[in-house]
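Hello forum,

I keep getting stuck at the same step: I have a sequence, I want structure tokens, and every attempt I make locally crashes halfway through. Rather than fight my setup again tonight, could one of you with a working pipeline run this one for me? It's a single chain of 379 residues.
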Amino acid sequence: MKETMGQIIRRLRKERELTQEELAVRLNITSQAVSKWENDTSMPDVSQIVPLASVFGVTTDVLFGIAETTADEEAWQIVNEAESLRQYGRYDTYLAGYETMLDGLRKYPNNLILLNNCMQWGVGLSLTENGWVEDPDRRKQIGDETIRQAELIIALSQNMTEIMTARQSLLFLYCNSGDYSKATEAARKFPVRTDFTLYGNMAYVNESMGNHGREIIYLCSDMDYALQAMEDRAARLGKAYMKSGRYTDAVEVFTTYFAVMKTIYGKTFPPYHDFDSGDCYLLLAEAYFALGNTEQAMDAAEESVRYYLRLLKSCPDVQISWAKLQTSPLIRESEVPTFLDRRCLKPKLIKKLRSDVFRLLADHQRFRVLRQEVENLPD
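Reply #2:
Ran it on my machine without issues. Output:
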């Protein structure tokens, strides 16, 4: 059955990850008007058709259901195909998905959907700390490709979020390749203040509109990302102290961070603590070990694993959603997607138990008990 215009608008909005309120703001109309369009109880005014098509990046023919597909729609199909190939921990599936998007870029070299998705995958595959690409030559090749993609996004896009994400990617890639002058240049193009965010500004817009329900969601989402940023900064700050030989200061950073998280989350699961920048529990264990406090080091290292063991017992779902586990009013209504596939946890924990910190603690009785518990987990 042919889609109605309302169904087309709804589909295109969801594909672009826009809420009805966000689409309404871009078109200078009410969210109720968008809702009526999508429910087919009214249609856009003729004067709104071109702006609407422009927001979605399609022709007006697509809105009327005349054109079957567009470059953007085919780009989304390519992205979805790439995503379907990816399996956690299997390098070959990540590379296969990446190659699928590269093939798409050869057909549509300036398509921003493909450029943005390919750039994000390229950053993950090329950064040395991620360990996804074992071949150094391939890692450099992907890094160079990703730099070109990021530069194209900056040149072509009019979306500030896309541009700043591309600049952030360039900063990571320049640091990874040792080009610190370009990395510094990229860093200086970011705002000094941390409250210049999409969700913060959307909260202000909705406050002005009197739409306080939506304002709450935006503020919770903004707080959610702020807490993730705090995790990242705490991990990096603690590591910087350790690399400077200041282990006592590092312990203080990590214990303060965990105290703050306990205050915010109470007895529920804080969803962050295990970023690419470092697992704060293992970093704390490393600092304690350097100070000669073996038992405290074992306490912290063990918690990095038992956190997940408790999580598995508390949530029977295959896809674990931290949003369902949260009670903190600061992030209770956040839209930030935070999921974990429980099938990924056993290999993740086995890899964690092989880390340098656990090797230092391998003779400890509690380590042997912990390893046995992990090995007994179902595959």
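The longest strand covers residues 319-321. If your local run keeps crashing, start a new thread with the error log.
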